[in-house]
Fold this sequence. Notes:
alpha/beta
Amino acid sequence: xxxxxxxxxxxxxxxxxxxxxxxxxxxxxxxxxxxxxxxxxxxxxxxxxxxxxxxxxxxxxxxxxxxxxxxxxxxxxxxxxxxxxxxxxxxxxxxxxxxxxxxxxxxxxxxxxxxxxxxxxxxxxxxxxxxxxxxxxxxxxxxxxxxxxxxxxxxxxxxxxxxxxxxxxxxxxxxxxxxxxxxxxxxxxxxxxxxxxxxxxxxxxxxxxxxxxxxxxxxxxxxxxxxxxxxxxxxxxxxxxxxxxxxxxxxxxxxxxxxxxxxxxxxxxxxxxxxxxxxxxx
Length: 282
């Protein structure tokens, strides 16, 4: 195969195209953009200036990648958006480039899947294997760690973090950090328990999952404050790498971490006795 560019597409002469790139009708690639090998742009895709797209990506119609930050203080500084390898970006997704207030980059890792109408604000830092369902909205400076799943029409407030292997249920709103390994839901978003299916898929055995459940119990459902909960975890559990990651996340939070479910919900379904077969979406 060779690079295929539809005659109606507009490619700036400074743009760099890899091997076997395909660019569909009426797509536009602006100056100093980079598109990696085997990446396919469907029709009506806009790749803004200085945007970097990795190899083997699929970009659907109407996507706008690397647009200017939605920030009134932005003065056309030479910032960029960077998209990793093997990403799928569906219809009408928008990814804003970074601002001058942070690193100057909006970053998406490898193997991410952004469904239709989802949005990455300026200076978002996204890890690998992240899935955003339809119409998810990430505000500026949000951090999303590896293997996170965010359900459709959910929103995450600026400067919040979404931890590794966490799952946010659809139509949720998070104004604080979402911890790693958590199953969360609601407006405001709240911890429901651990992401059992997600942990199982990532190779956590039954003993590790049970240990994580107990750590979640101390942190969100035992009526302890954060310091007391961490002390209880350290005193009563084997602190493996994942438990330590959870502790580090809690201790490093600047916006605070979302709370657990209400007391009434706890009474109806105690999180520390949840069945291994309880439903989870990731």
